Amino acid sequence: MTYAKFGSEFPEKLAADGISDAAWRTHAEAIMWVYHVEAWDLRVPKHMLRRIAGSIDWEMAVKDLVAAGYWADDGHSWTIRHHAAIIIGSLSAQAAKRERDRKAQQKLRDSLRAISADASAYQTDRQSSTKGKPR
Question: 1.10.3380.30, 3.30.930.10, 3.40.50.300, 1.10.10.10: which CATH number matches 1-130?
Answer without folding.
Answer: 1.10.10.10
